[in-house]
Amino acid sequence: MDWQVFWVTFSTVFLAEMGDKTQLAALTLTAEKGTPLAVLTGACSALFLATLLGVLLGGILAQYIPPMVIRKAAGLAFVVIGGLILLGKW
């Protein structure tokens, strides 16, 4: 395993997830339902599956599309989605 890639990925995802809607949803569900283990298990499973799909799709795309094009497309998608959110259309 490439530990440098591991720690860069861990740090990036950890910082990106702090205070986001996923964390707030988990906090709210735990407070409402009073079952922290069930919420933890559900949230971890969902994040694992979403990440797995991203890694698999990224691996497939990387075979056919240059990484720079993928990065630019992802950046553009973030900008477009952010604009739609600001306009209340997402």
TrEMBL record:
Recorded superkingdom: Bacteria
Molecular function GO terms recorded: metal ion transmembrane transporter activity
Keyword set includes Iron: no
Signal peptide from the UniProt entry: none
InterPro entries, A to Z: GDT1-like
Primary residence: membrane
Record flagged with keyword Zinc: no
Keywords: Membrane, Transmembrane, Transmembrane helix
Any one cellular-component term (Gene Ontology): membrane
Record field: transmembrane: 37-62, 69-88
Membrane protein topology class: Multi-pass membrane protein
Location of the protein in the cell: Membrane
Family recorded in the similarity comment: Belongs to the GDT1 family.
Family matches, as PANTHER family: TRANSMEMBRANE PROTEIN 165, TRANSMEMBRANE PROTEIN HTP-1 RELATED
Entry protein name: GDT1 family protein
Organism, as annotated: Desulfobacca acetoxidans
Organism ancestry: Bacteria, Pseudomonadati, Thermodesulfobacteriota, Desulfobaccia, Desulfobaccales
